[in-house]
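fyi for ur records
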Amino acid sequence: MIRRATIVAVGRLRGWAAEGCEDYLRRLRRYFPVEIIEVPEADMNRLGRREVLAVEAERLLRRLPEGAHVVALDRESGRPYTSEELARRRLEPLAASGRGHVAFVIGGALGLAPELLRRADERWSFGPVTLPHALARVVLLEQLYRAVKISRGEKYHW
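which gave:
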């Protein structure tokens, strides 16, 4: 399993999403360190789509940890995996290859800019539906926790 995870995301979570993330962070941190880095959303009232994506991409790229394997979460160009595939075909091999620090990137309301997608080592998707970025973060943490349990041969309990 990976040794360390960093989630670099646009926006600050509140309410139910923040509570869900805290729950999964508490669970995951029993197995490896997880850091959350939040960057401010660009002002969509003042900027056009292209400018919003560019501003957010710059903020995200600056905060990517050096040497980390970068996974961009992108509905359109990302590859969907089952939970078992995430554990056995993605996360376990990364750790075995010495790339045990994985940085996950979650965009804002408009997604991720092309330059950030090009920078990613790989792209994952949680399926064809569009998820609000707050929910995508909860789903990512839950899937990482599930992958840990699968890799360790442990039952997944609520």
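The CA atoms of residues 58 and 116 lie 8 Å apart. thats all i got for now
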